[in-house]
Amino acid sequence: MTKRLLMIDDDPDFVAGIKSILDAAGFEVEVTYNPKDGLNALQTKQYDLLLLDIMMGRGAEGIMIARKLRKDAKLREMPVLIITGMREQIAFLFPGEPVHPRFVEVDELVEKPVEPKLLIEKVNSLIQTAEARKAGKK
Amino acid sequence: MDSAPRILIIDDEEVVIDSCTQILRGSGYQLATATDGTRGLKLVQEFHPDLVFVDLKMPGISGFDVLEKIHEIDATIVSVVITGFATVGSAVDAMKKGAYDFLPKPFTPDEFRMIAHRGLERRKLVLETIALRREKELLREQFASIVSHELKAPLGAVQQNLFALEFELSGALNEEQKEKMERIKVRIDELLKLINSWLRVISVDINKLKEGFQQIPITTPLSSALESMAPYAARKNIEIVTTISDGLRPVTGDSLSLAEVFVNIISNAIKYSPDNTKVSVKAEEKGSNLLVSIQDSGVGISKEDLPHIFDGFYRGKSGQAMSGHGIGLAVSRQITEAHNGSIAVESELGKGTIFVVSLPVEITKTL
Question: On the CB side of A107, how many CA atoms lie within 13 Å of its CA?
């Protein structure tokens, strides 16, 4: 079955560069360009994975989404691939923590820009791990 | 201090308060007075003085305690102690505790005016310094955010689309086209790295690294640096010869930033080496230091450039494109110094360069 992904990122050009790679790799990618539409989509539809930008709008609004996901019993299980260009700022937001501060229980972080091979690898492995965990729980 | 400067006088002798009030009348200051420390401190919070005169010898709370409390309430308030000639010694003690000046009793109107004036000047300077510091900090943050948003993000989007284009065209490009694609990618990648290192210099307080220091074997950062440099070396067919002595003691530090130091130096070594040569990386102990030396047989650094290579934003006078010797080495030195270490360099034009990073080893207490 085709995997459905949602991408939340406010840079349409960047999104285009990610989406076309994932399209070509056989994923179905939906896009929202702001956190509000993103949350809306997450609450109304089902996705196998979320691709999340951190620095959007007036600051680190992506973190707000990650925090909401963490509190949501259903969405907490969805794997998240954080794609960010802001390594330094993440270090600022979470001083003293490793570069990847684990926003959600099931996430990974890659830096912009992402090489196609790495992108597809991460997406696949996150989805597989999530599915294996789900199967294990049943 | 936009409005009239505010002066508070705390003294239990009415005559002192009266004469001070008299002297300052008509000089455009706002004045408040208190006859004991408790009331004085209350006024400090309500009246927000710029300058406070405090009598050291008062019944109730002592002048020293008042000084201390004022400092706790607002450290930018300038305080001057009033003291009899016989107790100049305690005035000195008060100044050691942060009082700016002292006013010996008895004093002439001119002396009082002068000390008040000086105190207010001091206050102005203190506030200006704070404002400037804040402005500098703001500029730094803004610059960092401009660099990231206005430069890094668009460049990242360009590179991402290039990745996508290449991915879609894989198989359709001939060798020459692939080469062009590769050139574009490499140059954009270099630009992105440059922006990252600017951001590093501007936005990261290297001294904060110390908070996360741990005991680590030098091989941790060194191996990770070597690993990330391997593709670059392979591209120029440069062999990296690694010699790591056995039984090296650990160092205290931050693995990620030490890896950054090694990456910076090794990547320079690769960049300035001709194809098909060797770069040697050696780790050994010498006395209480761990030395990591990185030696190349590349273009070398001229005598006149050598003293400046750690300066940051330095590009070399010898006219060579020295983009790699810009910020990377400056950051590397800062990181190394935050680890109580040092970097030394020796070089000869046309013969090559050797960098030696020296870090103190963890002294184990087994005697």
Answer: 27
Closest Cα in chain B to A22 = B164
Residue found by looking up tokens 């290297």 in the block = B206
> Where does chain B show beta strands of DSSP type E?
6-10, 30-34, 51-55, 78-84, 101-105, 214-216, 239-244, 251-253, 278-286, 289-296, 342-348, 352-360
Alpha-carbon distance A96 to nearest alpha carbon in chain B (angstroms):
6
B163 closest CB neighbour out of A11, A95, A113: A113
Closest CA to B31 of B108, B112, B130: B112
Put simply, the answer to whether A113 touches B153 (Cβ < 8 Å) is: no
Chain B residues closer than 8 Å to A89 by CB: 148, 203
What is the total count of domains within chain A?
A: 1
CB B203 within 8 A of CB B141: yes
> What b/e sequence results for B289-312 when a residue is b if at least 16 CB atoms lie within 10 Å of its CB, and e otherwise?
bbbbbbbbbbbbbbeebbeebbeb
Neighboring chain A residues of B212 at a CB cutoff of 8 Å: 96
Q: What is the pLDDT of residues B54-68, one digit of tens each?
A: 998 888 888 889 999
Beta strand segments in B232-271, E? 239-244, 251-253
- Give residue-wise pLDDT tens across range A52-93: 998 887 777 888 888 888 888 888 889 999 998 765 455 555
Using alpha carbons, select from A52, A44, A42 the residue that is nearest to residue A15: A52
Q: What is the ipTM of this complex?
A: 0.86
CB contact under 8 A, B161 and A21: no
Closest CB from B148, B163, B192 relative to A17: B163
Per the structure, the complete domain to which residue A67 belongs is given by 4-137
pTM beyond cutoff 0.80: no
Cβ neighbors of A70 (< 8 A, separation 6 or more) are A76, A103, A104, A105
CATH of the domain at A120: 3.40.50.2300
CB atoms within 10 A of CB A72: 15
